[in-house]
Write a structure and sequence with these properties.
mainly beta; Porin; four-stranded antiparallel sheet; 24 strands
């Protein structure tokens, strides 16, 4: 029986900073009540239905380990919201706009920032393998959904956030800013395979490029580029087609390589390295609404000058991921 895929986008942002979490990229995925599942962090390979919109809200809360007993300027937590809108231009071509909102807090509240950050635009092209590579068709049977599905995507951030926020002493800290001053560019690839009615395998790789920006105090700063390789399994726990209800659980491994940040052309100590995260979570679908909840923790890390990187990626106590999306 041929059924139109009613896709729901699941998107997350993670953020990173010099000695604290500092920047974000959107990771895309889609799933419906039937067919492949979509994890929380790893991008899936489903596109939005042609002519359909998707409204999206996401929360990513990061709590960091602190290493001194005194209440000082160690990173306490980061709270990231993202508001998004997607549109299916074609069954194989989707366009997304994301507007993030950052809140960054130090333990002693000496330099907290909050506000809208750099907007981003992402274009996704979807295709599948069925006796050859073809664009995602408008309609697929349930058997068709078990074919390998893929996407390639590219995106750019727009320098709409304020990169020149100063503390009470008038000092600019690029890590506490709300923007990068210049656009960033990302490219990525995903693959999704529904193994059986319940189990889905997903893999993703992506690269994010940053460019040097001259701040108002004359400092030239460039954040380190990022490479990601993610894998995930989702498992369908409950399906009630009559009530349009589905509940999935997922397990993920997310690898992140960070290049060193550079200031005035010199690479900085206490930046960059390798991190492996685990993610465990659930996703609930009802009609065309999706809610996801999960916890993300570093399980292995090899950071450059690790003792200098309190508040950096890999030094989280935990991250809580929550998403809500609705297709219309």
């Amino acid at each position: 029986m041929v059924k139109k895929v009613k896709a729901l986008l699941t998107v997350f942002l993670t953020f990173y900073l010099t000695a604290s979490a500092h920047h974000g990229v959107a990771s895309l995925g889609a799933a419906g009540l039937e067919g492949p599942g979509a994890p929380l962090e790893t991008s899936s390979s489903a596109t939005l239905p042609e002519g359909k919109f998707l409204a999206y809200l996401k929360l990513d809360y990061a709590s960091f380990y602190k290493y001194t007993p005194a209440v000082d300027d160690e990173t306490e937590s980061y709270t990231f919201w993202i508001y998004g809108l997607g549109y299916g231009l074609k069954s194989y071509l989707s366009l997304y706009l994301f507007v993030p909102y950052y809140t960054k807090k130090l333990e002693d509240n000496s330099f907290n920032t909050s506000g809208f950050a750099d907007m981003s635009v992402i274009v996704v092209y979807g295709f599948k393998y069925d006796d050859g590579f073809i664009p995602i068709p408008k309609r697929e049977s349930l058997d068709d959904m078990t074919d390998w599905h893929f996407t390639v995507y590219t995106g750019v951030t727009l320098p709409t956030g304020d990169p020149n926020i100063r503390d009470s002493n008038g000092t600019i800290d690029p890590g506490m800013s709300l923007g990068f001053g210049k656009p960033t560019v990302t490219v990525g690839f995903t693959g999704t395979k529904q193994i059986n009615d319940e189990l889905t395998f997903i893999t993703e790789t992506s690269y994010l490029k940053f460019f040097e920006y001259k701040y108002n105090d004359g400092t030239k700063y460039r954040f380190g580029d990022e490479f990601r390789f993610n894998t995930a399994f989702t498992y369908k726990l409950i399906t009630d087609v009559k009530r349009r209800l589905r509940l999935d659980t997922n397990i993920e491994l997310n690898y992140l390589y960070l290049g060193r940040d550079a200031e005035n052309g010199v690479e900085l100590e206490g930046t960059g390295g390798n991190i492996l995260y685990s993610v465990f979570g659930f996703r609930l679908y009802y009609n065309t609404v999706s809610v996801g909840l999960g916890i993300k923790k570093p399980v292995w890390k090899d950071l450059n000058e690790q003792k200098l990187q309190q508040g950096a990626e890999g030094k989280e106590n935990y991250r809580i991921i929550f998403t809500f999306s609705a297709l219309f």
